[in-house]
Amino acid sequence: MPTDVTAFAPATVANVGIGFDILGHTVDAVGDRVRLRRIEEPTVRIRSITGIPGDISLNPHSNTAGRALQAMRGALELSHGFEIDIEKGIPLASGMGGSAASAVAAVVAANALLPNPVHRLRLLMFAMQGEIVASGSAHLDNIAPCLYGGLVLTVGIDQPRVKQIPVPPQVRCVLVRPHMHLGTREARAILKSDVTRSDFVWQTANLAGFISGCYSNDLDMIRDSFNDVIIEPQRQSLIPGFKMVQSGAMTAGALGCSISGAGPAIFAWTVQQHAEAVRAAMVDAFTSHGLQSDSWISSLAAAGARVVPA
Amino acid sequence: MPTDVTAFAPATVANVGIGFDILGHTVDAVGDRVRLRRIEEPTVRIRSITGIPGDISLNPHSNTAGRALQAMRGALELSHGFEIDIEKGIPLASGMGGSAASAVAAVVAANALLPNPVHRLRLLMFAMQGEIVASGSAHLDNIAPCLYGGLVLTVGIDQPRVKQIPVPPQVRCVLVRPHMHLGTREARAILKSDVTRSDFVWQTANLAGFISGCYSNDLDMIRDSFNDVIIEPQRQSLIPGFKMVQSGAMTAGALGCSISGAGPAIFAWTVQQHAEAVRAAMVDAFTSHGLQSDSWISSLAAAGARVVPA
User: Which CATH superfamily groups domain B171-299?
Assistant: First the structure.
């Protein structure tokens, strides 16, 4: 058995516009790396956090990766412990699933250190314990795609069903993060507790059309369905320039454009040949609102968290 | 050109539990037949209504088939008219899409009488005009599957998108209609105008899981997702014995069981080998509540309305 393993876990776009709290997909161009060393002391400790700076605790109980490993140690009754080095590639509070990625990378690395690795669905539950530290509640719409890869539907919490949904191979995701911070709790707090029946029907129609379009390689159906009538209207005011970024992306040929997770990052889907134009339009729109940004283009092929060379 | 054409249009299960107002599927074992004769007078007239008795108007303006043909004549600027004979196989106010079937059969027959038949999407819009007579509002969740066949998603009204969704071939629908009447308007009037965000998330998760399960032939996912948390709880009290019919179906091996359209018919999905047992359990449960019933078992292969021998 190795005693030292490094895992990479990609950024994720939760919600994907029309799938609030249930859909998410990977953005493999950016992610967190976690290096784990097996230690004989029965504990979890964090040795270092490097990469993109952020207010991340070195106390394992208050750290998503640390808490996920504590949950894993407890559930599997491991006698040994882990020492963690975290290299953040995903900025915090960006809507890119950074807290999920650290937790997922940690459990994937830990699993590779076990003589009897456990099934992915168990890793999912351990990583979710970490996610609770970050968001205050259990949710899987970042964790599940981060672990499984590609576009992923997650149903339920206690006994989650996870389903990977195929995406037409010519589709790319453009992800643009403006240099500002937005807390998940704040973005959640502004949501109304009710949905009108009319909006509910529209959103379900769009969700069903979107998923059908993904399975049947029907880009027209994906584009026509890519419209979140419930969450986006409530959250868009939290992101300066959102409307202009979105209309820029659509004019440049995007299939759809919405808020990544709780924001402020904004994502678009587009076919490969328009991806650079869509990115430029989105970045320019943020610039014209005085916001610098980072951006990535990524395929939506299934590539979840994985062990990588150190 | 023929001057006399008969078309059959199947019964339909609207909503399919988790797809309120957007999903529907055919039940090809039962339907309406409409015989059309081309007449030179520029009018639409109904000569006879036979089959299952019901309070159906012979005035074409107040009859779904008549109104659909009036809409078709007007839009296509036809100089000739139609004389209609309707043979009802679907009882009215049963939740089986009877008003949609008469309208769809009429426009399919009329199209076969035209020298230049029009596209199915136009027929959909004509039939919808007929449906307005019956339900008081435009909706397509019976019309679209009735016309296209199989399981059908419909998004929008003015420029509807219609998507046929494949169903695993071993699935059968059991449809049971108790001998009682329930008006669509009444069943609609009791619905709350809002949905909680929590129920909304659950319902979308189930809908997405259901559609994914259909595309990927995943019966476990279909069964686990087949749970309407929004409409069924509000409507079930309108149908005596609903809970017992549903639990009987599930115990007998159904994948799911819910209200067909606005009810009172109840449908279940099951694999072929359990279909007779599911039917028996549902019929028995109604009987124990003092209700006789009719029942059908049908495949979900795509077979929409079609011209048939007279």
Answer: GHMP kinase, C-terminal domain (3.30.70.890)
